[in-house]
Write a structure and sequence with these properties.
The chain is an all-alpha fold and 195 residues long. The chain has 2 domains: 49 residues, Homeodomain-like (Arc Repressor Mutant, subunit A); 122 residues, Orthogonal Bundle (Tetracycline Repressor, domain 2), CATH 1.10.357.10. The chain is 69% helix and 0% strand. The protein contains 9 helices and no strands. α1 packs across α2, α1 crosses α4 and α7 packs across α8. The chain starts with 11 loop residues before the first helix and ends in a 10-residue tail after the last helix.
Length: 195
């Protein structure tokens, strides 16, 4: 959904200011209150600059969310597959438990129900996250009792359901509990993922 090829090349400083402003506004005012005019004002750039690079508020927020997920929720490999899985889930859940990420992700998902372009962008983002999780699961030794795609759905399903319903936290405790559940599904000792 990014429009980096439109018009003049982007100034990285202005681009980062716009993405940061968009996330800040979403966190402060909520997803639906974010406007292109507001983003431009908060970033200290002209509205034409924002429109030159992104066609809609959703496009700005999608790019901001994508970059945030790479920066905050893609930890570097550690010393083993169990530790890597726990680190990935802990970082992913922390990003979506608080801050603008949760607001933006839920807002984009709602808009995706009636906008095919937003739907495609959300699907692309979630596909990247699913591929990362599946890759981590494939590194675990064991004999899986269920298809890995179902395990991916189960893990991220917990996150989405709790984000939407709000009945439970999406935090480090949740990450550790899911790692223990995944260990059981893979035939590994249940405590392997928490060490």
């Amino acid at each position: 959904m990014t429009e980096g090829s439109r018009g003049r090349p982007r100034s990285d400083e202005a681009r980062q200011a716009i993405l940061t402003a968009a996330l800040g506004l979403a966190e402060r005012d909520g997803y639906t209150a974010v406007t292109m005019k507001g983003i431009a004002e908060a970033a200290g750039v002209g509205r034409a600059t924002v429109y030159r690079w992104w066609p809609t508020r959703a496009a700005v927020l999608m790019e901001a969310l994508s970059e945030l997920s790479v920066r905050l929720a893609t930890p570097a490999p550690t010393d083993g597959p169990e530790a890597d899985l726990l680190a990935f889930l802990t970082a992913t859940f922390a990003m979506n438990e608080r801050g603008p990420s949760r607001t933006v992700l839920l807002g984009l998902t709602a808009d995706a129900q009636h906008d095919a372009a937003i739907g495609a962008a959300v699907a692309e983002l979630t596909a990247r996250r699913r591929a990362l999780l599946r890759g981590l699961l494939e590194r675990l030794d064991g004999e899986w009792n269920v298809p890995l795609e179902l395990v991916v759905d189960m893990v991220f399903g917990v996150m989405w359901y709790r984000m939407i319903d709000g009945h439970g936290r999406v935090d480090a405790t949740t990450a550790a509990e899911l790692c223990r559940a995944v260990a059981k599904l893979s035939g590994r000792r249940a405590d392997a993922a928490s060490t």
